[in-house]
Amino acid sequence: RRWVNDPIQRTYMIAYLVSMAGYGWAILRTQFLTPWVGWFSIGWSLTWTLLYLGPVGAPVVAVLFPLVFGGALLFAH
User: Fold this and answer.
1) Which has the closest alpha carbon to 66: 4, 19, 32?
2) Which residues of 48-58 are buried (b: 16+ CB within 10 A; e: fewer)?
3) Residue 72: left if φ>0, alpha if ψ -120 to 50, beta else—which one?
4) Phi and psi dihedrals of 65, rounded to 5?
5) Angle at 61 between CA 47 and CA 2, to 5 degrees
6) How many Å from the N-terminal Cα to the C-terminal Cα in the chain?
7) Distances (CA, A) of 38 to 23, 34, 47, 68
8) What span, in angstroms and rounded, lies between the C-alpha atoms of 66 and 34?
C-alpha cells in the first residue's frame, strides 16, 4: 500500500479525472450521446477530484466511469 500516496499515482489520478471531464465536455459539444452523460461525466470528475485532493484516498470507484461511457455508446443511435 506504499504506492497509494506516491506522487506519480496522485498525478495519474488527477490527470485521469481531468481527462474524463474533458470527455464529458466533448460529449456536450458534439451531441453524439445524450447530454446527461456529458454532465454526469463532468460532475463525477469534479466531485472525485475535490474528494481526492481532500481527505479521501485513492478513489477506486472513480476509475469505473468508462463503463458508463461504454454502456451509453452501446445504446446510442
Assistant:
1) 19
2) bbeebeeeeee
3) alpha
4) -65, -30
5) 100
6) 43
7) 7, 7, 14, 11
8) 15
25 vs 28: CA distance, rounded Å: 5
Encode pLDDT of 2-58 as tens digits: 555 677 777 888 888 888 888 889 889 987 788 888 898 899 888 888 888 777 665
Question: C-alpha cell of 26?
Answer: 466533448
Its pTM stands at 0.71
- Spatial separation of the C-alpha atoms in residues 25 and 21, rounded to whole Å: 6
